[in-house]
Amino acid sequence: MKYFIISIVPILIGLIVIYGMIKGVKIYECFIEGARDGLKLCVNIYPYLLAMLLAVGVFRGSGALGYFINFIRPIVKFIGLPPEVVPLVMVKPLSGSGAQGVFMDILNQYGADTYIGLVASIIIGSTETIFYTLTVYFGSVNIKKIRHTVWAAIMADLTAVIAAVIIAKAIFTN
């Protein structure tokens, strides 16, 4: 079984090549064209990605994230979200790797089998890195007007956070 699992990707690549040969596709030329298009896409996306990563670093490094978390702490307590999870909710739309770091800090400090750990686990799995995703996808096709998409994505993330609280309470209190 182990060897079968290891062999899945090479077998899949071989089947794709065989299928292309049967259909008369110039496989190598198609591969080169795809690689060229992929490289162009990377070059087009890079400035947007760099700007977004720089903004995240400045936001966290300047302490602005900490001030904002303290400002909204009463609101999150009202909806039942543990204040310890607020940094995760704030960082996740900006940076997936930053959110993973915050998530691991939460689990190390509070444990995975606590209410805080459960809420954090649900949030990390059900929310999106909104601004990274928008930067990559809209930047790659040069779309500049994204305001409706941003608000819809933020509303979806807030819904996921509220659902995480409801689900965690339902699971943890039973």
UniProtKB/TrEMBL annotation:
Keywords: Membrane, Transmembrane, Transmembrane helix. The chain crosses the membrane at residues 6-25, 45-69, 115-138, 150-172. Residues 43-143 form the Nucleoside transporter/FeoB GTPase Gate domain. InterPro entries: Gate_dom, SpmB. The keyword Membrane applies. One of its GO terms (cellular component) is plasma membrane. Pfam families: Gate. This is Spore maturation protein. It comes from Clostridium botulinum.
